[in-house]
Write a structure and sequence with these properties.
Blueprint: H1 2-17, H2 21-27, H3 30-35, H4 40-63, E1 68-69, E2 73-76, E3 80-90, E4 95-97, E5 102-106, E6 111-133, E7 139-158, E8 163-173, E9 176-181, H5 187-231, H6 234-237, H7 243-246
Length: 250
């Protein structure tokens, strides 16, 4: 899916590039463990994330990753109903680091945890709408945006099993939503739509965005595990080309 590709590329490139492949092969992750004792790794990952974020919009445009199709929405009220169809969302390729990427190492459990805070400056969306009040009502289109949507992605790597996993996705700020409806709408219809945007549409879109990030992050885990598996098997590593990642970091 397009939604998966957007953040899969972003996060898997970071994970793969931030690891010293020679250290992994020669020392069984020993050098990586030692590097977690200092701030150097955090600075390195911050730099890689920023570089990838800067280059990612061009990559997304080339691969035609956006817009992403949204599910239809239908809400019923006592005397009215609202149906949104043909929805599309874009802006997820314009992602930015929101503070330091934190890396922690639990010595007892032998687990590395990475927390990646990100934000989207402007997520744009469109829908066709149909409002029905007492069996009649207008149809039209709407355009909107969510500004400064912030969330964090928490991943971990178990150095006992060399397996990565997604721990959680957490929204810290669902942003500010703005919506414009075309057509000549009465005050009564506008009031219904405005209430719908605040109480229903914004939370629904937040859920869509979180789902996109979760799907992508789950695929990131699979990508990271594949990289690790190829690193730990010399017969496979000979055929593994890390240059495929480097093109996005130039």
């Amino acid at each position: 899916m397009k939604s998966s590709l957007i953040l899969v590329a972003l996060l898997s490139l970071t994970a793969a590039k931030s690891v010293d492949q020679n250290a992994l092969l020669k020392n069984g992750f020993g050098d990586v463990r030692n590097s977690l004792e200092s701030d150097e790794l955090t600075a390195r990952i911050n730099e890689f994330v920023d570089r990838i974020c800067d280059n990612f919009p061009a990559f997304a445009e080339k691969q035609k990753l956006e817009p992403i199709v949204l599910q239809d929405i239908k809400q019923h009220f006592l005397t009215a109903s609202i149906e949104l169809t043909h929805g599309k969302i874009s802006g997820l390729s314009h992602v930015y680091r929101d503070g330091n990427v934190t890396v922690t190492y639990d010595h007892d459990a032998n687990i590395v945890t990475l927390n990646l805070p990100i934000f989207f400056k402007k997520i744009s969306f469109t829908y066709d709408y149909h409002v029905v009040v007492f069996l009649v009502g207008p149809k039209g289109g709407l355009t909107g945006s969510i500004d400064n949507f912030r969330l964090s992605i928490n991943l971990s790597l178990d150095l006992n099993t060399y397996q990565a996993k997604l721990n959680k996705i957490k929204t810290s700020n669902s942003g500010h939503i703005t919506v414009k409806f075309d057509g000549h709408l009465t005050d009564a219809i506008l009031n219904i739509l405005s209430q719908f945007v605040t109480t229903a549409l914004h939370p629904i879109l937040q859920g869509f965005i979180e789902a996109i990030v979760k799907i992508a992050s789950t695929n990131v885990v699979d990508s990271v595990n594949k990289v690790i598996d190829e690193i730990l098997h010399p017969d496979v590593i000979k055929n593994f080309n890390f240059a495929q990642y480097q093109q996005y970091l130039r």
